[in-house]
Design goal:
By secondary structure, the chain is mainly alpha-helical. The chain has three helices and no strands. It has helices spanning 4-32, 37-44, 48-62. The termini are far apart.
C-alpha cells in the first residue's frame, strides 16, 4: 500500500500530459484547418465548450 500515493502522482502527471496534448492538438487543428468545433471535439476528446473557448482564445491572439 505504500505505492498508492506514488502511483496516484504518476497517474495525475500522465493525465496532465494527456490533457496538454489534447489542447495542443485542438489548437493546431483550429489554426490549420476548416474543421468544425464538433469535429475537433470528437477527435481531441475535449468538451465542445473547451473547443469553443480555445477557438475564441486563438482568434483573439491572431486579431
Amino acid at each position: 500500500m505504500d505505492n498508492v500515493p506514488h502511483c496516484k502522482m504518476i497517474e495525475d502527471m500522465l493525465n496532465e500530459v494527456r490533457r496538454e496534448a489534447q489542447i495542443e492538438c485542438a489548437l493546431r487543428m483550429i489554426r490549420n484547418s476548416k474543421l468544425s468545433d464538433e469535429e475537433i471535439f470528437k477527435v481531441t476528446e475535449l468538451t465542445l465548450e473547451e473547443v469553443k473557448e480555445l477557438k475564441a482564445q486563438a482568434s483573439a491572439v491572431t486579431a
